[in-house]
Amino acid sequence: MDSVTQAVLGAGIQGAMLGRVQGRRALFYGAALATVPDLDVLMSYPDPVSLMTYHRGFSHSVFVLTAVAIVLAWLIRKFRPNPGYSGRRLFLTLWLVLVTHPILDSFTVYGTQLFWPLALTPESWSAVFIIDPVYTVPLLLGVLFAFAAGMTLTARRVLVATLAFSTAYLGFGLAGRMAAEQRVRDALQGQGITVGELRAIPMPFNTLVWRVIAKDGNGSYYEAVSSLFDRGPPEWVRLPLNPETGRALAGVPLHERLRWFTDDWLRYDVVGDALVVSDLRMGMAGHYTFRFKMAQRAPDGAWAAVTPSVWPSDRGGWNEFKLVLARILDAQPPLPLAQWAEQATK
Length: 346
Description:
Layout: H1 3-22, H2 25-34, H3 48-54, H4 62-79, H5 87-106, H6 133-149, H7 153-190, E1 198-202, E2 209-215, E3 220-227, E4 235-240, H8 243-246, H9 253-262, E5 266-271, E6 274-279, E7 283-284, E8 287-288, E9 291-297, E10 303-310, H10 318-329, H11 337-341
């Protein structure tokens, strides 16, 4: 999630847990501590694939952050032996502020290495968009109220209420994702289309309209859109994955790492003399957020892997976003998925 959301979540937790003793300082302490896992963005990497796949790595591990919470709690108790709250409560507060950061990140589609150093596929629960005002704004208002009113009993109860609402909203997102996946699977099966891997991703800034991607096992995938308010079948378009093109990158370490990080939700396109790899999980048809040039075609037609570079991509703008917003309540006209998809090879 975005930094503002992580900060107000940390502030809300520490304010609710230790605000009675720490007062308004609890809000600042919690906000600052909650941003610590994202300090990995200060690290430099030689290429954009490494930058993408090492972000949300060791600094987002629940094992690492638990150790950090233990050390911080010990240091604070050492220099402030009688702060007015128990060591157990202090540790629990610090631990919650730290570990809720990567757990919240795991509710997005990006991918969070929650159990680093275990080499598990990064957690990517795709229940909320990376920026969602319905999640963030109530937390922000609760923190602002607590700061203005002081850490009174009422203010702490407000913080608890906003934390409960935000948690329930994550559950709503998970339920929406599962419902969208089922609607699209049923619609495809109704047309005699059998798909294997399938996953729904919330479209920008909401959990009401979902983009669903599904592999058919024959080198193609479906881009579908389904809203909570749909009364008819979702719209979809069938697009190529081009796995035969991707074989040119077989065994290339950064390509294998990208496959692992994305759970192999990759598409391969030849654009001129470049082999472009797209992460299908983020963006929309033809408007993918992460695209990389990973090979160059030689004069003899052979592919040679190159140091990855960001491939320019039209990520969509206000015109596309207006259509997405309108799609929440009305399925007509359907989103122009086929037209958007043409951007992938430009």
